[in-house]
Each structure stands twice: as C-alpha cells, then as structure tokens.
C-alpha cells in the first residue's frame, strides 16, 4: 500500500509516519510512504530523523495549495492521510488568512487531485474544536458544528468539503476528530511543550484567564493508532471521534507540569484570557471503540512523565525553535 501523508513533518503527522515505518501501530503494510510538507514554522525535517534511512520514505517539500505539485505527488498513491494544516488557535486570532488558505483551499486542492487520480481512500484528520464548547456531557459524531475560532472554523470548512466530495462524487472519505494531543516533537508554542520548556529554562508560564478551561489530553501515539484503525477499517463517508484521554482544567494540567519539573506556583503568571476561549471540549468515543476496537493505551501520568523526560533530553531539538521569532510567548 502506497500512503501519502500531508503535513508529515509536523507534530502528529510525523508520529504517524514514524509509526507506519517502525511498525509500532496497527499493521498497514506500507510499501511506500510519501510525505508532502511545506515546512512552515511548525514543520521540521528532524521530526522524521528516526526513519530517515527507511527506503520506503520519500519527502517532498511542497504546498498543498499548489495544484501542480499536488497533482504530481498524489498520482500513484492508494491512500492520502491529510494532516497538513495551520494548527495554532492563537495565530488564527492574529491572522486568519493562512488558516483559510491552507485548511480550506489546500484541502479542496487535495480532494480534487484525489478525485482525478481515483485515490482509494482519503483520511481527513480533524479536531473536536469544530463543535465549539460544551458545558456538560460529550459530543457524538452527529453533533452540529459550531466552531468559535478562525482555526476551528477553517477546520469545520475542510470537514464539510471532505464530506461533500463523498456525497457528491462518491469518494471514499473518512474523517477523524480528535481531542488535544501531547507528546514528543510538538512545536513549543502549544501549552504543554511551552510550559515544560519554559520551566526547564527556569522561566515562568502564562496561564489564561481563571485556568478553568477543560481539555481532554490524549497521547499523540494513541491518536495515530486511532487514525490507522480508521484508515484501515472505517466506513466510507463516516466521522470517527478519537479521544478518551483525561479531562483536566488548565490549572490541574499546570499543577501536573509544575510537579513534573519540580517547580511551584510562583512560576505561573496569569494572563488575560484568549479571545473567544472555548470552555470545555469533550468527545464521546463509543463509535470508534465499538466499531473498530479503539482504546487509548497511555495514561496521562505515564505519558506526561515520558513527555517531560523527552523535552529534558532533547534540548537540541527545541532550543533553536524557541530562539526563532515565531513563538508566541503567551500561547
Ligand atoms: N495538535 C492537536 O492537539 C490536534 C488535535 C486534533 C486534530 N489536530 C489536527 O491534526 C493535524 C496536525 O496537527 P499538528 O498538531 O501536527 O500540527 P503542526 O502545526 O505541528 O503540523 C502541521 C504540518 O503541516 C505542514 N503544513 C502547513 N501548511 C502546509 C501547506 N500549505 N502545505 C503543506 N504542508 C503544510 C507544516 O509544515 C507542518 O509540518 C491538523 O490538521 C490539526 O488540525 C491537531
């Protein structure tokens, strides 16, 4: 099976590629894995170093909005797993244009190419943020979309396009929507690597608002296992939730990270809340559990301890990224 992974040099996409090629997830028997990635600020070739010598891996630097490049790369693949996106909510508040361009137009460009080439399956990787915010209970896959940030609105647009290509053209599209991920190789603007690397550097960490926002934290490997199950056995035209980590308020998460880094609350600086900040996300994962046998395997205590250790031991990976001007210090 020849698999094209867009955004495969990013945080989650690179975990998927490493998993596919090292055989540490569901067996999908890839004969070739092509990564198409623009290498924006959050894309990093070094994320693929552990599998760089695998002869099945081919890397193409290119933009998913570039129809010519996309057409050339899509040809000959059996499956597309589409991760490439602008992914940081705070950046979308400061400027929505790249989000609409990459997440909506880029996805449409890929869908068109997949349609032309008769690609066997299109796996569209999306997020729980498309549903907005929920005070109690959990969303099922039928829940109406009600995104609140430019990021989530652009992801919702791409989800709807993907479903439209299934309904209109009969394309084999499956969509995954996942909760918040953490783990190694995450760009240090997202809350967990930002906090951990700030604390390891002896600095402070910015906590939004009252710290009461709730997120479900899932290890990136569990996310990728879920995507692989959906790629393998998901039903065409269906949406599958991937989650089932641990729900924590941002204050509880901060406490865990302070403990893991041996720091106290004197290192926490309260900052004004994010505009339009969703209060709580929560996914019902019954569908993927019952249909595809998915269950997360890494509990948060173990996952966070391993993640903090990884950032402690891989300063050479994150230090140059933090030194770059592109990190938003209050993300
Ligand atoms: N991080 C999370 O917690 C989370 C949760 C649920 C879903 N998701 C979704 O998973 C996907 C991957 O997220 P991530 O956290 O790995 O993001 P990331 O920002 O770490 O990686 C995105 C990758 O896409 C590439 N890219 C961006 N624009 C591109 C373009 N125009 N053409 C080609 N490549 C481009 C970047 O270079 C980078 O390698 C996204 O679609 C995101 O919406 C993320």
UniProtKB/TrEMBL annotation:
<keyword id="KW-0456">Lyase</keyword>
<dbReference type="InterPro" id="IPR020904">
    <property type="entry name" value="Sc_DH/Rdtase_CS"/>
</dbReference>
<dbReference type="InterPro" id="IPR005888">
    <property type="entry name" value="dTDP_Gluc_deHydtase"/>
</dbReference>
<dbReference type="InterPro" id="IPR016040">
    <property type="entry name" value="NAD(P)-bd_dom"/>
</dbReference>
<dbReference type="Pfam" id="PF16363">
    <property type="entry name" value="GDP_Man_Dehyd"/>
</dbReference>
<comment type="similarity">
    <text>Belongs to the NAD(P)-dependent epimerase/dehydratase family. dTDP-glucose dehydratase subfamily.</text>
</comment>
<dbReference type="GO" id="GO:0008460">
    <property type="term" value="F:dTDP-glucose 4,6-dehydratase activity"/>
</dbReference>
<dbReference type="InterPro" id="IPR036291">
    <property type="entry name" value="NAD(P)-bd_dom_sf"/>
</dbReference>
<keyword id="KW-0520">NAD</keyword>
<feature type="domain" description="NAD(P)-binding">
    <location>
        <begin position="4"/>
        <end position="307"/>
    </location>
</feature>
<protein>
    <recommendedName>
        <fullName>dTDP-glucose 4,6-dehydratase</fullName>
        <ecNumber>4.2.1.46</ecNumber>
    </recommendedName>
</protein>
């Amino acid at each position: 099976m020849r698999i094209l992974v867009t955004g495969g040099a990013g945080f989650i996409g690179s975990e998927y590629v490493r998993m596919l090629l090292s055989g540490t997830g569901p067996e999908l028997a890839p004969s070739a894995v092509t990564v198409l990635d623009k290498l924006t600020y959050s894309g990093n070739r070094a994320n693929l170093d552990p599998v760089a010598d695998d002869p099945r891996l081919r890397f193409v630097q290119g933009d998913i909005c570039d129809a010519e490049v996309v057409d050339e790369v899509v040809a000959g693949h059996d499956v597309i797993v589409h991760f490439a996106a602008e992914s940081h909510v705070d950046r979308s508040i400061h400027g929505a244009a790249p989000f609409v361009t990459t997440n909506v137009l880029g996805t449409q460009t890929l869908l068109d190419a997949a349609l032309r080439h008769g690609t066997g399956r299109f796996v569209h990787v999306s997020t729980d943020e498309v549903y907005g915010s929920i005070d109690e209970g959990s969303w099922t896959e039928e829940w109406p979309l009600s995104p609140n940030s430019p990021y989530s609105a652009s992801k919702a647009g791409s989800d709807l396009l993907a479903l439209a290509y299934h309904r209109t053209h009969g394309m084999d599209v499956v969509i995954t929507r996942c909760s918040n991920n953490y783990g190694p190789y995450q760009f240090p603007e997202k809350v967990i690597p930002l906090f951990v690397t700030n604390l390891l550097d002896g600095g402070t960490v910015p906590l939004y608002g009252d710290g009461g926002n709730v997120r479900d934290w899932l290890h990136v490997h569990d996310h990728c296992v879920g995507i692989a199950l959906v790629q393998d056995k998901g039903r065409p035209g269906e949406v599958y939730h991937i989650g089932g980590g641990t729900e924590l308020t941002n204050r509880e998460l901060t406490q865990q990270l302070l403990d893991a880094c041996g720091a106290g609350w004197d290192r926490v600086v309260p900052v004004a809340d994010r505009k339009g900040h969703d209060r709580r996300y929560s996914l019902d994962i019954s569908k993927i559990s019952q249909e595809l046998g998915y269950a997360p395997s890494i509990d948060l205590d173990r996952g966070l301890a391993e993640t903090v250790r990884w950032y402690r031991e891989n300063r050479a990976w994150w230090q140059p990224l933090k030194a770059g001007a592109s990190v938003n210090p209050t993300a």
